[in-house]
Structures
1.
Amino acid sequence: MKLFHSITDFHSTKKTILTLGTFDGVHIGHKKILGRITQNTENGKYESLVLTFFPHPRMVLQEKSEIKLLNTISEKSRLLKETEIENLVIHPFDEGFSRLTAEEFVSTILVDQFHIQKIIIGYDHRFGRNRTANIDILIAFGAQYGFEVEQISAQEIQDVSVSSTKIRKALLDGNMALANEYLGYTYFLTGEVVKGKQLGRTIGFPTANIQIEEDYKLIPKNGVYVVKTVIDQKEVFGMMNIGFNPTVNGQKQTIEVNLFDFDKAIYGEKLQISLLKYLREEQKFGSVDLLKEQLNLDKKTALEFVENL
């Protein structure tokens, strides 16, 4: 897949079959729509293209938006690369772009830049300045400029919407089985390993502290998880705590991973941590010894889960 960081960076001699949207999560509902794009390329006659935006439009247009996304922009790019889409355009979204009229968007971007043959879009999609243009206006533009418009049905759009809503709720409830079922893959966090207080090392559970740079990334429910990562091309399992470490009076949320049978120094490395199962809620213990006792039980449960994968 070719990646472009601006609409004007894209150039092709072929006409395109495209769709546009946020595609947050790149989940099973999105993949059905993306599959429609690739099926319409007629074995290479046209090129498939996905147009998405960053920052998320709500981050720009809604001053107090606290939207949390399932993917960072780099995570979304990696997930889309795993599909058969040939071109991904991530265009910087700003207030200037939002002021384009519907016809300016169609004529200068879809027609002049993308040489559009066909757009596959939701029946409820709205575009142009103040989102005033709807699917009927897009169809009229298609007739005027010579491209096709295929509507994604209300049921399919509802499936995508329901999937996204259920995934977010499941993650905030700690229901990893449901979240991962709707995603079609295991939800993951990507962050750099940084130095923490190293308290875990003193009780036999050294942890890698994961720092996630993007504050818009959705962090699942606080608690203990069974996790997996890949280091030096090898799968490494472990358990992770998201929370405030109440037993030692922690003051801020941290993400700490204890990797099983692993003792290599990995400070500064970027890890992708896949969340396999939620084990329990974070709790405050009466002493560090009681915490250590519980961590031993957690590890036993986690290893049993891993053995049955």
2.
Amino acid sequence: MKIFHNISSFESNSKSIVTLGTFDGVHIGHQKIIERLVQSAKADNAESTILTFFPHPRMVLQEQTEIRLLNTIEERISLFEKTGLDNLIIHPFDRDFSRLTAEEFVKNILIEKLNIRRIIIGHDHRFGRNRTADINDLTEFGLLYGFEVEQISAQEIQEAAVSSTKIRHALQVGNLTLANQYLGYNYFLTGTIQEGKKLGRTIGFPTANLKIEENYKLIPKQGVYIVDAMLEGKSIRGMMNIGTNPTLGENAVSIEVHFLDFDANLYGHKIQVNLYQFLREEQKFESLELLKKQLNKDKNQTHAYFNSL
């Protein structure tokens, strides 16, 4: 997969089959469109091309937005890489770009820059200044400029109820099962392990503190999760706490992972933590001994969960 960080840097001698959008989450609905895109390009001896944007348009157009995204841009790239896509264009979204009329977008971007043969879009796609153009407008432009328009209907995507917004809500209320079902993979967090206060080590549960640099990444509901991560080439199971560690009298929210049957110096390592199940709410215990007792219960549940897979 070739990656271009601006439309102007895109170069190809082949015709393109194109789809476009923000693709936050690259969820099962997105995957359906991308699968069709890749298949269509192969059948037509063309190149499959996705035009996506960063930052997210709402981050630019709604200055007070509190939107949190399912993927960092690096995570989104890693998900696209698994699809068999030929070209990924990540265009910087700004106010000037948002002011392009629908026809300017089609003529200047799709025709002149992307050398489009066909565009494949979802059932509810809108584009152009203020998102005023729809599938009917796009079809007319196709007739005018000589490209095909293929629409994937809501009926074709059986999971049509899926949306990035619904997945965000599911994660925020702790419904990880639904979120993972909609995503088609386990929601994950990517960050760097940094040194903490090492209080977990004193009760037999050393933790790796995960620092996520991107402040727009959606952090799920606070609580305890069953997780795993690839460490030293192996999948290592663990449990993760998102919260303030109230028993230890802390205030700032942290993300801490206790890996089962694994103890190594991970400081400075960048890792991906995959979330499998929401285990319980974060609690304040009257003593460290009661906390340790609960953590042992969590550990047993974690073992039981993975053993049942």
3.
Amino acid sequence: MADAKVIPFDDDRSRAGAVQRPQRRRSGGSRRKNGEPVLVREVQPLPGRDFAQDDVPVTREEQEPERPQNEGGEVGESGQGGLERRIAHGLSFLRRRLTGDYEVDDFGYDEELTDEVLMPALRPLYEKYFRVEVKGIENIPADGGALIVANHSGTIPLDGVMMQIAVHDNHPANRHLRLLAADLVFMLPVANELARKAGHTLACAEDAERLLGRGELVGVMPEGFKGIGKPFSERYKLQRFGRGGFVSTALRKGVPIIPCSIVGAEEIYPMIGNSKTLARILGFPYFPITPTFPWLGPLGAIPLPTKWTIQFGEPIPTDGYPPEAAEDPMLMFNLTDQVREQIQHTLYKLLVQRRSVFF
């Protein structure tokens, strides 16, 4: 693994998918399209001026090159060439995985696997099932470090991965969000490996500062298990944000804090009870009881198809504070309260605008 090197997977796509732009004709003549002759007009340059290629007027037939047709006679965008490119790209990806010709950072993050496998696997859930609507993506900077702070809910923490896809798919720079996760995530056999590969890391100040220092986007949900394990009767009521450690981290690195409000996750598993005995036996912080789980068995684990909205608020800058501000408990309390109030206010605003939980 240490000898692995990076071969950007975009190179395969760019080399195979490159299309040379056809040149426009300047002289008169005719050509054929679908068996019919098409007249190409001759254009004379103006006196005393050189004619640039882009100045040459062309007919509609010249502007719109012929597109390949499918077997049924309909025009297709990809055709056989697109299929061949996808197959070649997939084979190239498999070759790199089998030969170890890819890169994993010191946190275990595998960007290529995330973009090629993990996100595509979750994208139908994001696009078709929860139909996530994203607002305020322009508040996330194009580059440099930033700390995104969001509410946490849903009994099972699907909101974090949905927020990752929302940032990557909607941001103009396709930025990746590195989430800070609880230690329980890294104690579960399968979840541990997948979380590391997807860019998650332990929710501690040291890891967060290292990522922010590299100019990464870092996501944190300060409510923790108190947020995702709260009863359905307390939905959309933010729990305590801890001691404000995320604010201290942002102050040390001078990065903006971006509040994020997520509506729709609270209803995917309405938690109407909590079996503390089973939770204690299994070592979980809670054991949820919902209208469908555990009564329906595995079917009860299917989330309800709620309609989601994720809104990123205006950044709260921290670069104007002196270095010792990170040790000021009163300042940390005020900034933490400001972030929390902004998220809560936006949640209420989105709930008022919502007409249906499912549509």
4.
Amino acid sequence: MYAYHTMAAKSEFHEIDTGVAEVLHEPDGSMVLLVNGVPSSHIVPGDPARLDFEYMRWIADFLDAAYPDEAKPKARLTHLGGAACTLPRYFAHTWPGSRSTVVEIDSELAVLARMLFDVPRAPAVKIRVGDAREVTDAFKPATRGVIIRDVFSSATTPRTLTTVEFYAAARASLSERGFYIANCGSHADLREAKEELAGMLEVWPHVAAIADPPMLKGRRYGNIVLIGANRPLEATPELTRALLMGAVPAQFKDEEWCRKLAAQGQPRRDEAQHEAGGPETP
């Protein structure tokens, strides 16, 4: 989820499986995709390297700095949540030879993305229609280099994608040097980030976070990028510079900071959904 404000844009509406997609055509030629009224993607046709949503820029900055140049062409990225496929477009363009698989639950939205947003064809970007949790549970071990979770139902990530069991399935599917990256929408008390980090730390030995200072201090609702890995996570000088140079300067928070925050949260578990005799709402 991302808060986005636009003026003087022309709108078009499309029926999709999960509701309504609205495409805003901006005066500068860019497009914003809203799903059931919630901004989910921003793209510029013909310019896949431009990322206007800050959290997407932070994810790209982290991976650009973390991945050796010689490894980028062979990278295998899995994107849980597709929308307009902004990040898959970015990596197909900036990491030539890499392959992205997008898991999108809404088949009509997947068709719309191909039709409107110049998404590269397979094998550069493959779109797979399915439920992100079910697909993750079925991944073969050690077959992915990066998993990026950016799934929202309305303005909330479905609970099934925030549990210890989900993290365990994601980790099992990653290579030993792989990364799990999540876009966490969190309120001013950072409850969502606290709970997610607490769960992630039961699965991954190393975690980190990226966000802008007001968000990290719990002053507003916004996006925090959470990272899990089997190896220590550090902010290289390259990453620090990239995060500070963006339109919304951000900070990399190390494992110590994340562990202190996680100590204030309780991990979520799959079985919690059944304690009350039925599934919990997200």
